[in-house]
UniProtKB/TrEMBL annotation, chains A, B:
GO molecular function, one term: DNA-binding transcription factor activity
Sections of the chain in a coiled coil: none
Protein name stated in the entry: Transcriptional regulator
Organism in which the protein naturally occurs: Lactiplantibacillus fabifermentans DSM 21115
SUPFAM superfamilies: Winged helix' DNA-binding domain (SSF46785)
Residue ranges occupied by any HTH marR-type domain in the UniProt entry: 31-165
Length: 181, 181
DNA sequence: CAAATATAGTTAGCTAGCTAACTATATTGA
DNA sequence: TCAATATAGTTAGCTAGCTAACTATATTTG
C-alpha cells in the first residue's frame, strides 16, 4: 500500500470527530495527525527515491545487496550471509540473486571447503553500475534534505529517536497483549 | 523490503567513506545519515503498527477501506470510488473486497441506475470490528508519539514538511532527467 | 439512432516479499 | 564412527500490489 496515491485523506476535522467518538478522551489529535504525516512524508519520499533507483534498473533491495558485495572481501559473499545482513528470508535472496545474475551484475562461484555453499561475486559490470549510481544516489539524498539546515537535521534526528522509543513501547505493549490471552 | 530486519546497516563511518569516494565533495554526511534514519524510524514504526492491525485481522489497506465505508452515506461505496480514494488499481480493490466479503465485513449490493456497477456496504459485523479496533488504534498512535511534547510534535511536523519540499524537488529533478534523454 | 468511445468490474499473469518443505552436505555427540 | 541434527540453497505455493486485456453497460457524437 506504500505506493497508493490517496485522493481522500482524513484531515484534522475528520480525525477529531473519530477520536471524539472512539478514542480515549485524553487522546491528542495533533499526535494522530503527526502519525499520518510521518507515514505520508516517508511514503512520498520513498516513491521518489524508488524512481531514482529505477532509472538505473535498481530497486533498493538490489542496491543494498550490491553494496554488501562491494564492501566485502574479494567482492564475495554467500547467499546465506546476504540473507542475514539484509534480514530477509533465504528464498527471497535466491530470487534477487537470480535476477542480478541475469543482468550480469553478479556471478555464482563455488565455495571452497563447503559443497553446500556457493559464493556470489560482484562482476565488473556490477561495480560499474554502482560507480555510476552512487553519485546520483547522494545527489538525490541531498535534494531530499536540502530544505533543512544543519541544526534542523540534528533536531529531526533527535525527534525521530523519540518516535523509535514509542515504537519500542508499542512492541512491548503488543507482547504484553499476546501474553495476556 | 520494508519488513527486512537488517543486521548490517551502514554507520556514519562507512557512509563517510563511500561519500568521500563517490559523492559530490560538498555532500553532507549527516544528511545522508538522516535519510537512513527516517527510513529506519518509519519502517520500524510501521512494522509495530501492522502488528496492532494484525491482532484484529486487519491490514492498513483493509482498515482504510472499512473507514471509507464507515464514513460514507448509508455505509455504501462503489469499488471504483474506493479505488479512486485509495489511489489503488481497481483489480487490487476487487481482491481486497473479496477478502472482506469472505470475512463478512462487507457485502455486495447491486447499484440502482447502472448495471455495470455494484455497491459495497459495511455490514454490522464490519462496523463492530471498527468500533472495537478504533480505540486500540488511537491508543497505539498515542504510544508511538508519547515521548514527544506538544511543542516537539509541532516541530517534527514542520521538519517533515521540509522533507516534503525536498521530495517535490527530487520529483522535478527526475522529470527533467527524463526529458533530457 | 447507430457507431464510437468510455467506464465498471473481473480475470490472467507479472513482481517482490513470505513460510514450509525438499535435497545435499556438514557437524555433533552417544 | 555413524546416527541425529543443523545448515545451505532451492522449489512450491501463499499474499498484496501492479498492468493489460476482457465483458458488459453507459454515454457521447456524427
Amino acid at each position: 500500500m506504500d505506493n497508493f496515491k490517496f485522493t481522500d485523506r482524513p484531515d484534522q476535522k475528520r480525525l477529531s470527530r473519530t477520536i471524539a467518538e472512539y478514542g480515549d478522551p485524553k487522546t491528542d489529535v495533533s499526535a494522530a495527525v503527526l502519525f499520518l504525516d510521518l507515514q505520508w512524508t516517508y511514503r512520498e519520499m520513498q516513491k521518489a527515491y524508488d524512481q531514482v533507483l529505477a532509472a538505473s534498473d535498481l530497486t533498493e533491495t538490489r542496491f543494498i545487496i550490491l553494496m554488501f558485495l562491494f564492501r566485502a572481501e574479494n567482492y564475495c559473499l554467500a547467499p546465506s550471509e546476504l540473507a542475514t545482513k539484509l534480514g530477509a528470508a533465504r528464498p527471497t535472496v535466491t530470487k534477487i540473486l537470480n535476477r542480478l545474475m541475469i543482468s550480469g551484475l553478479v556471478i555464482k562461484l563455488s565455495a571452497p571447503n563447503d559443497k553446500r555453499s556457493i559464493l556470489i561475486q560482484l562482476t565488473p559490470t556490477g561495480k560499474a553500475v554502482l560507480q555510476k549510481f552512487l553519485p546520483r544516489n547522494f545527489e538525490a539524498v541531498q535534494t531530499i534534505t536540502a530544505a533543512l539546515s544543519a541544526s534542523e537535521i540534528k533536531t529531526l534526528s533527535t525527534l525521530l529517536q523519540k518516535i523509535n522509543i514509542g515504537t519500542r513501547n508499542l512492541n512491548l505493549e503488543e507482547e504484553r497483549h499476546h501474553g495476556n490471552n
